[in-house]
Amino acid sequence: MITNMPDNQITLYIIKALKESKRKEFDAILDELQPYDVARIYGELPEKHKKRFLLYLNIDMLADLIEELSKTEQLDVLNRLGIERSGEVLDEMDNDDLASLLDDLSPEKITQLLSGMKKEESKAVQDIMNYPPETAGRLMTNRFVWIRDYYTVKEAVTKLKSFTDYAETINYLYVIDQYRKLVGVVSYRDILMAEADAVVRNIMYERVISVSVDTDQEEVAMLIQRYDFMAIPAVNEENVLMGIITVDDIIDVVIQEANEDIEKLSASGKSIDFETRAYVAAYRRLPWLILLLLIGILSGSIISTYQETLKEIVALAFFIPMISGMTGNTGTQSLAVVVRGLVSNDINKRVITKLVLRELGVGVIIGITCGILISLIAFIWQGNLMIGLVVGMSLLLTLIIGTLAGTVIPLILYRLQIDPAIASGPLITTLNDIFSLLTYFGIATLFLHHIQ
Amino acid sequence: MITNMPDNQITLYIIKALKESKRKEFDAILDELQPYDVARIYGELPEKHKKRFLLYLNIDMLADLIEELSKTEQLDVLNRLGIERSGEVLDEMDNDDLASLLDDLSPEKITQLLSGMKKEESKAVQDIMNYPPETAGRLMTNRFVWIRDYYTVKEAVTKLKSFTDYAETINYLYVIDQYRKLVGVVSYRDILMAEADAVVRNIMYERVISVSVDTDQEEVAMLIQRYDFMAIPAVNEENVLMGIITVDDIIDVVIQEANEDIEKLSASGKSIDFETRAYVAAYRRLPWLILLLLIGILSGSIISTYQETLKEIVALAFFIPMISGMTGNTGTQSLAVVVRGLVSNDINKRVITKLVLRELGVGVIIGITCGILISLIAFIWQGNLMIGLVVGMSLLLTLIIGTLAGTVIPLILYRLQIDPAIASGPLITTLNDIFSLLTYFGIATLFLHHIQ
């Protein structure tokens, strides 16, 4: 009925069904909707219809709905449901989603929410919450089908059928032995092709790619991307299968990690999005701005030590923004290449040497090009050959050093296990600023003395 | 056998099998490996073993291997295979991967490669290549199972079994009517649960979320992410099912788009990675650097118009790097928030108004904080209240304007359908540089006159 209906008309239809208490029509519409759409419609509903809307949804749908909402909305919905029904909904939610819902809540609130849940489900969630943030353990779900290695294909199919709900996400089955250790994987396809009485152990792949529960989420994402998997199993140190991580969570990780890299590279402060309040956003950005301010003062004090030179030739001041701007920019260009390259490359000595030499080459090429160009412009503009030469030579040098700094510093930090994106920005800016001004005024002063 | 073997030992094992022509052992090892690993091992093989390695692989494995290689390697392998075998391999490859392999080749080379292929396969690839780059049409594959709406569940299962190869990637079946129009979708789970003689039309979901073949890949990614799909169908303007796009391709899109945003924001030049040669990288970065150089000259000429002021108070020069650096940085901070926000938010008037007001708030807060701070520092350092006030007031103003420029300009460009990331960087830098220097020297000159 609603197949080709535009979104806002569906909402109107639902409101009508709610107003007239037409449960059947309501169910028929909801049956065709995706969780994301249900959440969108819930958000658009007038306040007075929300209660009945939640009442009409079954537990499965409520769990789906809640997984799509923001944290505040989630808590609001759970409150409206009452302790008993919210317990059932929480039982039904994916563990990883529930864990991130509970993440920043007060201990009392957590206890209250968990109290309505089944024992085993609440334990499973608490287990997940014990893993550090941004690890495989935090992303994994226990909603998946595992089979024993001694099952026959027929037994595997029977198990699959009785867990169809879980079986929807991916299409392979992980195989465990009597100690719950991960020993293999079979695809639905293998199951379809095999004889009914074949033993799983004999048809499974034994070389399972898995991650440890404390593997960093960025590495999990890299593996899933590399192997084009729909899911990857997570094991503990004894190779016991603890859960699986599905590709839909990994897409979110990839976006989150890219955003984090951008935030750090642009020093825009951690996790500022469209919803963040002004004072929070300002508070998050200020540390970096104040640091920049102090760096600015440092640059200023370098200039001040050369004020005699500057007094003699005021024209030197005209080129300050250009030189520091360009040095800073080459540094950032190299930094961005390195930071993003680290996402998808295996790093070894050969790769590093090649990269550093390449960037040195880049620095020399752009240094010579821009150096010659600015020499000519400065000479024509100021009618003074010496100024042209000073500016050009300074730019040549600072561009080479800027490029190298932008390459080498993040690589060193990476080796020291410090996130290159966050640490390099300020470091490179500072060093490049200081270095470019010292070079520029140093060369200028030298040449002035030479002339005199 | 190789289940728990480290990677380099597997390579040695394979070399041994190749040396001793032990085909069976070779097959046993290969059977347990993922395509990514096969490609890695192929890359590590000494030249003399590559020929036999390729000879030992069957067509399926060769297709898998090629899909993991870089373009140059792909062409090299195809060359080694000879026209007939390479034709078979190309038949077996995913259409979208093949299309991107052929993308930049000469027409003669394309004809040569396609000539070895089956007619229908080579036509399918040529069809895909007719879609513009970065659209759904380019990403989609025709390797999937569709069923007719009048099939029974039993017929659907039979079809599924005869196409197990295709059935591995996802776990829903798209349903088409007699005109090949997309009319529904059923999950494997629905099929498992239903009676064997139930008709697909009656158990399918009718509200299929699909994309058009010319939908931008970024939008496809947003839909897949939003709905947590494993795949999404692509249709033409008559709603005829043309192909499906799977989540593993979408992860690559997400990474590619994030990298593009970062490249643009850091102006690091398009597609420079660890493999790019120095002169190519320099060539790609130079346009932006030369633009920056000209902007720098413009800034310099602004300073030069105020050289009388500067001569009187040389100390004003000390604060030039700080003011232009900080204004530029606040602009970039806002820009990054907007550019990444556009990836995952629906944009409307309400959102925009809220965002602009928020950033105005941020600008005021950081402006006041940093303004007061620098006033004090400048006063203490220079022992001159007037300089402190001039610098502080300038910074207050430029930070507010910098923040607003970084927010409003990308939004305007987005409205004009220009990519905000690429166009805003240079624009914001220029405007902020010019504006900050004008403000700074303007205020300074004004106050100087006032004193005199």
From TrEMBL, chains A, B:
Cell compartment(s), UniProt: Cell membrane; Membrane
Protein name: Magnesium transporter MgtE
Cross-referenced InterPro entries: CBS_dom, CBS_dom_sf, Mg_transptr_MgtE_intracell_dom, MgtE_N_sf, MgtE_transporter, SLC41_membr_dom, SLC41_membr_dom_sf
Gene3D superfamilies: CBS-domain, MgtE N-terminal domain-like, SLC41 divalent cation transporters, integral membrane domain
Keywords in alphabetical order: CBS domain, Cell membrane, Magnesium, Membrane, Metal-binding, Transmembrane, Transmembrane helix, Transport
Membrane-crossing residue ranges in chain numbering: 286-307, 313-339, 360-381, 387-413
Alphabetized SMART domains for the sequence: CBS (SM00116), MgtE_N (SM00924)
Natural source organism: Robertmurraya beringensis
Function as written in the Swiss-Prot or TrEMBL entry: Acts as a magnesium transporter.
Family: Belongs to the SLC41A transporter family.
Keyword Membrane: yes
Subunit structure: Homodimer.
Keyword field contains Metal-binding: yes
Domain CBS span(s) in chain numbering: 140-203, 204-262
Membrane topology: Multi-pass membrane protein
